[in-house]
Specification:
Length: about 100
Amino acid sequence: MVIAREEIFGPVISAIPFRDEADAIALANDSDYGLYGYVWTRDAERALRVARALRTGTVQVNGSPLNPDAPFGGYRRSGIGRDGGRWALAAYSELKYIGWTA
């Protein structure tokens, strides 16, 4: 379905059944997009394991609040690079290295 395959901006949620943790991660990562991911669990180790496995720019665990200093951006067709906080400085900077032998 389109709602599960495309990046839809708006108050929309889709619920897709899964067999186990590996299946849930595979379903979540089977997309051309990767802006945000959400994990809901009482198991802290599982939350971290799944959050690390998700190919999204941000993962919110158990409804954590937004952090305005966090980097913002996605993976794949959701964008490359990060905006917000100190991470955005690289996007607006031109770095130069000068090697010198005297």
